[in-house]
Every structure is written in C-alpha cells, then in structure tokens.
Amino acid sequence: MICIFLLTILSALIAFYVYLIWDFNYWKKRGIPGPTPRAFFGNLPSMFTQKKHIALEMDKIYKEFADQPLVGIFSIRTPQLMVKDPELIQEVTVKNFKSFHDNEFSQLVDKKSDPLFGRNPFMLTGEEWKERRNEITPAFSPARIKVLQPLIDEVAGRLTNYIKDQHEALDTKELASKYTTDVVSSCIFATDAQSFKTEKPMIREAGRKLVEFTFTTYIILFLVSLFPFVKKFKKFQFVAREVEIFFTKIMVDAIKYRKDNNVVRADYLDHLMQMQEKKQLTDLELAAHGVSFFADGFETSSIVISHCLYDIAANPNVQQKLRAEIQNVITKKGGLTYDNIAEMEYLDQVLNESLRCHSIASHLSRLCTEKTELTGLKDKKYTIEAGTLIIIPFYSVFLDAKYYENPEKFDPERFNAENGGVKAYQDKNVFFPFGNGPRKCLGMRFALAQIKRCIVEVVKNFEISVDKKTKEPLHPDPKQFMIVPIGGVWLNFKSIEK
Ligand code: HEM
C-alpha cells in the first residue's frame, strides 16, 4: 500500500517536473539565443525569491547577450522574448502595433472580477481599450491641464510650508507621495486629501492599498506563470471591495457637490460629467475613471520626483544652474504659470536625465495576438507566434553604453539642444520613459505638470543635499514592483532666505 502511495507521489513529481521543463527547447528550436533556464524558476527566479530586483535580473541577461537583438527567456516555464534592438522595439510598439496591442496584465482581470482595475485602460484589450482610451484622451489636453495649475500651485505652497516646519532630513519618497496624493486628489476628486496635515489620511491609505503588491498578488502572479491556461478561465480581483466602495463614494460626492453648487471648471471631472450625460455612464464607471487617474497618477510621479530631487541634491552644479533658470524665468515672465514652466529647457533636460538614470520599472510588455514577422538588422526575419509575451527592457536600454556615453553619469547636458535634444534619442528609439506607440502613457502631460511644479518649488525655496541616511549608490528594493531605492531617499532642506 505504502509502495503504491510512494509510487503515485513519485510519478506525480516526475510528471510535474516534465511539465515544468517541457518547453525549455522553445527558443533553441527557433534559433533564438538565451540563458539556460532552471526548473521551477526559469530565468527570472527573483520574481518570486525577491532576492534581487527583477530589473537587475533582466539587466544581467541583457548584458550577457550584449550583441543579440533578441533573447529568449523563460518565466518559470513560459517562453518570453526580450526584444533589445531599438529598431525591433519600434516594430513591436509602433509599426506592428496591430499584433502587439495588449500587455501582460490585460489578461488577468476583467470588469466582472475587478470592477475598478478591470476598467483601467492599462488593463483593457482590443476594441474596448481603444474606446476607453479615446473617451479619456481629451481630458488630458494641455487646456484642461492648464486649468488645474492653480490647484497644483496651492499644493506646492503646502509642500513648502510643511518642509519649513521640519527640522530633520526628510524621506523624499514619502514627502513626494504626500504632494502627489494631494495634487491628484484635488485635481480629480476636488478634495483635500490632507496628507500634510494628518499622519494617516484616508485617501492616502486607500491609495496605498490600490498600488501595493500584496502577498495574494504575488501568489496570483506565481500561479498564472506556472499554469498560464488559468487566465482563460479565471480572472482576478486586485482592488479590495472596501477600497472600491471608498473611491466610488468620493467620486459620487465630488460630482454631486459640483452639480449642487453649480461649480463650472473645464477640467478632468468636468470631462467625466459630460461623458456621463452623453454615454449614460454608471457611478461605478465614473469611479473607475477617477481611480485610474488616481492610481496611475500619484505613485509613479512621486517615485520620479524623489529620484529627480536626489539627482539635483547629489549634483550641486546642476542645482545651481537649475535655480538660476527658475529665477530668470520668474524675473522675466513674472511668475510660474504652466507655460512658463514648460519653457524651462534646463529643467526638461534634468528631468529627462533623471528618467533615463532611474526608470520607474524594469520593462514594458506587449502580448503578440497574431502570428507576426519582425524584420531585424540586415533584413533578418523573426517569426513571433501568437501568445508570446514580449519584454522590452527599457531600464537596460537607457543605461546601455552603446547609446549613451558614460551611461552611469548623471549628465543633463546630453539632452541639450546642441546635441539634438531629447528628440535625437527618441528618433533612435532609445528613450521612451513613458512607453511608446499608441499605448504610450496617457497621463504624461499631467505627470510632467505636477512633477515639474514640485521640482521648481523645492529648488526655488531650498538648498538640498543628500543626507547620510541615504544608502548610496541607490539600489532598487527587490520587494517592490516599481524601482524604488532600498532605505528611501533622505535629503536635507535648507531654506533660502529672501
Ligand atoms: C512620471 C510619471 C509616469 C511615468 C514615468 C509613466 C509611465 C508609463 C508607462 C511606461 C506606461 C506604459 C506605456 C506602454 O506600455 O507603452 C504607462 C501607461 C499608462 N499611464 Fe503612465 N506614467 C506616469 C504617470 C502617469 C499619470 C500621472 C497618469 C494618469 C493621470 C498615467 C496614466 C497612464 C495610463 C492610463 C496608462 C495606460 C495606457 C494604455 O495602456 O493605453 N501615468 N505610463
């Protein structure tokens, strides 16, 4: 009896092992090079062991296959294709977009399983994605963002007052999260999130729950990597029900307040209200739009702000030059309007260089939805099967010495006008911090407006320096999905007396 039992267990283990390694010849058969995968882990063990950030793990593979345009890798047992060559990246994201319009997350949720995330453009696929993106794009026009500028200014003022009241080094990620939470909440929900006043304000806590990867999230990601077919039958819920109820109520209240008090302001909320009338959207659908803006808007921008302030603090010459530009614009133009800030060329260079040195994530992803042929260098053809997940390792591309001289150096001058500006790198397809092609970041204009306003506010009012509590060189925290430094970014702020 025991023998039969042990034999059954052994057979099951062997069957499972064979299942795990069954496809490990996939890339070899197609003539695509790649690192040897390990049973159970594939080539990206840190996705689950969390010993190293996934960006560093991918970077190791990227460098190991330095001269290869494509590298075949495995996530546990599933073949994935790392596309490294800039021309091929352009083919996937732009030229052949019709075969690569979805991303890796889009298969995990739907509207039924997760009413809020299931309606976020980032998660949608095909026609529904297109429709939703078209619906919301006008809300991010320069005119609508300009209307929000006074709200952003007000929060920038709160930020300055808050910093002045502190007498020790501050964790800039935390500081920037307070700022972006208040800006985004004021711009979408017309509500003061009170991040600078209260220790744990409700909106910030709910926002935290929206973006954090919980243990359950990791289990789901692990299971779908192990058994990819599960995605066909089962969709998941990432936003907890209580968070869904919280944000739906905020959205409904904001709209009611506007209607009851006849508030007219041509902004994002106004755009949603017009859509509600035209398309008979439900409260839940409106809340989903609001939550998309909130979730996509506060965390990403706060990471970028904290990295950019770190770069400015660590490079006193850059700080001086930037402060001079800001003073100059204020003196000549009389104030910090949306247009005046947009005209600051050096600020743009500094921010772009910071986005290059510190990508917010390891890669973009695209799912191949129909068999497609890509054309590489010397007209070499590569056939990509439907279902293949494409990994575009932008973290590594931006730090590749082939495209950037002395890539580890923070040097805003590489983006100056004499060198062709940022366009020179965009034309070579080696700079795309907001993604590329029709699926490029929808909130880029808003992100730039809130980030630049924050940087200008801080550099105008404070001399900043890196505090010894910061662990240098910065090293990505393996426990976070986005690239956030271990231990935080601690800066000292010295008020500039006028
Ligand atoms: C500096 C801050 C930000 C960065 C670096 C950033 C970066 C990105 C990237 C890399 C993508 C994927 C693009 C692709 O696959 O080609 C993306 C998508 C997206 N972002 Fe952002 N983002 C930022 C801020 C924002 C903000 C503030 C919002 C909204 C208010 C936003 C809304 C979105 C949306 C809706 C998508 C999905 C677009 C689609 O799939 O059609 N992002 N972002």
UniProtKB/TrEMBL annotation:
The chain crosses the membrane at residues 6-22, 210-230. InterPro entries: Cyt_P450, Cyt_P450_CS, Cyt_P450_E_grp-I, Cyt_P450_sf, Insect_CytP450_Detox. GO terms for cellular component: endoplasmic reticulum membrane. Pfam families: p450. PROSITE patterns: CYTOCHROME_P450. The keyword Transmembrane helix applies. Keywords: Endoplasmic reticulum, Heme, Iron, Membrane, Metal-binding, Microsome, Monooxygenase, Oxidoreductase, Transmembrane, Transmembrane helix. Its cofactor is heme. It is found in: Endoplasmic reticulum membrane; Microsome membrane. Its main location: endoplasmic reticulum. One of its GO terms (molecular function) is iron ion binding. Heme binds at C441. It is a peripheral membrane protein. May be involved in the metabolism of insect hormones and in the breakdown of synthetic insecticides. Belongs to the cytochrome P450 family. This is Putative cytochrome. It comes from Corethrella appendiculata.
